[in-house]
Amino acid sequence: MKKIYFLAAFAAIVVTVFYACSKNESQLNQSSDNSRLSSRDIEVNRLINRMQDKMAYIRKNPAAKTDETVSADSALWYMEATINYEHGFPNKYYEEFQIDTTSVIVNKNSNGTVNLTELTQKYDEMKAGISTAYHSVAYADKGLAVVDLEKVSEDDSKIVISVKSSTGKVNPVPDTLNTNAPEDWWYGEEMGRCDIAGGLGDAADKLWNKLNIRIQSEGNFYYIDEVDVYFKGGDTLIKAINNNTEPDNHLDYYLYYLIKGTDIPYSEDMKCIPDADMDTYYNYLEYLVYDYIPLTYIPDDYGYYHHQVVECTLLNDKKIGDPQAVEKYFHQMWLIYGEKVSKAPGMESTEIQ
User: Fold this and answer.
1) What is the DSSP secondary structure assignment for residue 271, as one 8-state letter?
2) What is the mean predicted confidence (pLDDT) over 101-108?
3) Nearest alpha-carbon partner for 6 in 279, 344, 291, 303
4) Are 311 and 10 in contact (CB under 8 A)?
5) How far apart are alpha carbons 215 and 94 in whole angstroms?
6) Is 79's pLDDT higher than 80?
7) d(CA 312, CA 331)
8) What is the phi/psi pair of residue 231, to 5°?
9) Main-chain phi, psi angles of 41, to 5 degrees
10) Where are the beta strands (DSSP E) in 171-307?
């Protein structure tokens, strides 16, 4: 996991070149005058706006030399924050995602800093890679949901950065999970409903769909300092939340889990999740996503500003083991959390080209 780099970014900038106030900066100033944004929103937006101006200047004047530098951690922060600011659409409802991961190597100066010319070149390289991946996705209506950068390694000469971009399939009319209807769904494996013939998907699909509807929010905003979180049913951590020390964890309502082929009582019916239990699973899933993870887990590394869920990239079933011996069935999920930053009116994201 990466650490939050905002304070380092804020403190590490050494201004040596004058840059004119941009249109975005003017809009930001107007917005701050009428108190539409918080002081935190204004602070972060100004940092990004000024970096955009500096990178634009370097692109237009490639022969010009600048001695301006940032720390290596700040370079990562600026690259991630700026791409999400310019091209991220986290406020749409996405019914599925395609994930692309690549890497970028940012070269450091002898004193460990990164020159702004290098930062600009690597930002453009990263953006080109994300654009290629985004436009290769065949969704008819899509959006670049979020870009998450992680530091893979660092030495005296360079920092290697992993770049993960999430392209979402937009559904303007989200489906809903009617928990009052007799919808009993199989645990997983896209087997549909249990007691009624038909039905596309499985219990995990229905839970994921409802969670993504809850995550969706309106407004003009983006996220910074994202962090990936992975959980699966049967994890010691999840069992501890539920005060469940028994080896049979199939009643763990946070993420479904059972074991086949052991002394634990087992039947195929255990893989059918009744309607009432679907409702219970979802309520505990919301607790896990909205309360336990951000308040108990994330602050261990990300305690400075409150992080909230950006997207649930994956919630599905996973079966491991030998069908003739022991099989473990559980639900697993990938989540992305980040700090939400509002934009001033008129400062909209654009589709990446």
Assistant:
1) G
2) 97
3) 303
4) no
5) 10
6) yes
7) 13
8) -135, 155
9) -55, -45
10) 185-186, 221-232, 257-260, 272-273
Structure tokens at 32: 């701050």
Going by their DSSP bridges, the two strands 327-342 and 257-260 should be labelled as: antiparallel
Q: How far is CA 294 from CA 87, 124, 230, 298, 342, in A?
A: 25, 32, 13, 5, 20
**Lookup: tokens for 67:** 């001695």
Q: Where are the domains of the chain?
A: 6-170, 185-342
H/E stretch holding 189: none
- Report the alpha-carbon distance of residue 334 to residue 309 in Å, rounded: 11
pLDDT digits (tens, 9 = 90+) for 294-346: 777 775 555 445 788 999 988 988 877 776 667 778 888 899 999 999 998 88
Measured at the alpha carbon of residue 109, what is the angle toward residues 52 and 44, in degrees to the nearest 5?
30
203/193 Cα distance (integer angstroms): 8
Spatial CB neighbours of 162, under 8 Å, sequence gap ≥ 6: 101, 102, 103, 149, 150, 151, 152
Token duo for residue 158: 């360079």
Distance, in Å, from the CA atom of 353 to the CA atom of 350, rounded to the nearest integer, reads 9
Neighbours of 266 (CB within 10 A): 17
pLDDT over 70 (residue 228): yes
Distance CA 112, CA 75 (A): 11
